[in-house]
Amino acid sequence: MSYAPAMPMAGYIPAEEIPSVQSEKDWCRMLPPEDQAQQQLQILQILGGVNYTDLGRYTMEQTQLFGNQVTDALKAFHERLDEIERQITARNNELPGKFEYDYLKPSNIPQSINI
Questions:
Q1: d(C-alpha 115, C-alpha 103), whole Å
Q2: Domain count of the fold of the chain
Q3: Does residue 115 form part of some domain?
Q4: Domain span at residue 39?
Q5: Would you report the helix, strand and coil content of the chain in percent, each value rounded to 5?
Q6: Counting CB atoms within 10 angstroms of each CB, which of 30, 38, 82, 90 has the fewest?
Q7: CA distance 43 to 96
Q8: Which DSSP helix (H) or strand (E) runs through 42?
């Protein structure tokens, strides 16, 4: 998602003029001004970007936005996730052969609702 002409978020000439768009110059008139195009790309990246991170794991940048109450709750959440991971691993070690069930180990769950 980084080619602004492919996704301008809006047309910048009246709709009735679109059939007359025939040249590169006409096409460029349809596109947003550069500053708006940059802002639109940033918005689209935020809305449509996919970050494959682990459940409950945030970047340092993100955690700096949290207050102490959230940081403390997040620490407790990490501890609980680590305990769940250990329990699943221990149970898998007791299973015969290759019947391990790793799908819902916290380390295998993305930070999203797409499980």
A1: 9
A2: 2
A3: no
A4: 4-48
A5: 55, 0, 45
A6: 90
A7: 50
A8: helix 34-48
